[in-house]
Design brief:
Length: 113
């Protein structure tokens, strides 16, 4: 289910001071600090946030490095969708190949007659 950004509560002064809000949607709950992940996951999530939301996260500025579970789920759902689309394209490619072979076969059969 897509996240409805407009339902999020506005940032409180407290959360602004602590920087504990989602870098993408400003949500203040269910947060994960990307910088507390292992090195591979830090890079992975920085890249994903850049790719899917055009937001550049960095460990070298003072901007929030938190993501909420909802935004992480949105990204993971998009990746799943893309994987499904790619699989489907392989199926379509295979079907196309098969139908072309059948066309060639039927032409050859016609020539043989
Ligand atoms: Zn979020």
């Amino acid at each position: 289910m897509p996240l409805n950004f407009s339902t999020n509560k506005p940032l409180s002064v407290h959360s602004m001071n602590t920087g504990k809000f989602c870098r993408i949607c400003l949500f203040t709950k269910r947060l994960v600090d990307v910088l507390k992940m292992d090195e591979a996951n830090i890079e992975k999530w920085f890249e994903r946030v850049k790719e899917y939301f055009q937001v550049s996260m960095s460990r070298h500025d003072n901007k929030s490095t938190y993501l909420c579970r909802y935004c992480m789920q949105i990204i993971e759902d998009r990746i799943d969708e893309q994987n499904t689309v790619m699989k489907n394209q392989r199926i379509i490619g295979f079907l196309d190949e098969m139908s072309q072979k059948n066309v060639v076969k039927s032409i050859q059969q016609e020539d043989g007659q």
